[in-house]
Structure formats: structure tokens, C-alpha cells
Amino acid sequence: MQFVQREKEKKNLIDAYQAMRQSGRQQLRFVIGEAGSGKTVLINQFLDEISATTDQTLIVSSSCSVQSDYNIPYQPFKELLKQLLKDVDEEDSKKEKFKEVFRFCAKTVFEHAPDLLGNFIPGTAIISAIGQNLFQDKDKEPAHSIDESKIVVQYVDAVCSIAEKYRLALIVDNLQWIDP
Asked: pTM of the full predicted structure?
């Protein structure tokens, strides 16, 4: 599919990705434009192209939505982290090579972002409880809610630790809806 006025942006994304692969340095890119100008299609084509490569780039994506996720704090970032921690289907041979990666991601989040487990990441309350029992100081009360000041620090620490070992592409679409 040919883009109207988007070939330059696609080339810029691909060039930035190739530079990141060669240098190992992290990069941040924004795709901007008016509503309906093809931003999502551009991102999807870029992702299709980089996922067709033979390397092991982890690609996780989420989208902000004013309609469905309006009152859920940090929703797109929760979604990204859930994708990094998802259970890999053993029968899917394409995902077989990523089993080690997902185990590493889970271990990294457990070590670098313990306050996110059970609170920020749904479905991990049991892991959080086990972790609290293993590592909790006996004189302290267990934490039942997340310390808001730790969310960003722990999230970034965990993602950066994952990105140190594996190439990581985090995509957040419709970022304009992040803050209602």
C-alpha cells in the first residue's frame, strides 16, 4: 500500500530503527498529524516491516481511548507491561523463541517494580502476595496499595532493564487521549 505524503515519515522511522539496532541507543519518536491522516496505518506498516526481520525485537503496543479507558489511570502503560508479561502459548512455534524473553521480563518486573504487581498489573495479586511474604520485613505492615510516587520510577526502571538486554519497541497510539 502506498501512502499519500507518508513515505518520508516511514523512511524516517525505519532509518531510526536501523540506527537504534546498530548503536544500541534508545530512541523516542512521535508520529504526528491531523485526525485521519494515516498515523495508525503508518505505524502498523512500520511494525509489519520490523517484525518481518529475523531479529528478536520485542514489539508491544497499546492505544489511548477516550471512550473505553477514560477513567483508568495509566491504561496504555498497563497494557504494554501486560503484553511483556503475557503467558506464551507453548504450541505456537513462532513464540517459542521468545519464552526466555518473557521469563526475563517477568523476573525484571518482579525485581525492579514490585509495587506494580497486584496493583498496576491486574491478575498478579498472587505473585505480589508471594513476593511480599518472601521479601517482607517482619516488622513492617504489608503494602495494600501502590505508592503513587513509585509508579513512574519503577515502570521506567523495569522497561529500561528489559531494553538493556532485548531490543524493545513500545508503541502508544492516540496519545492525545492520554489525559482527559
From this structure: 0.73
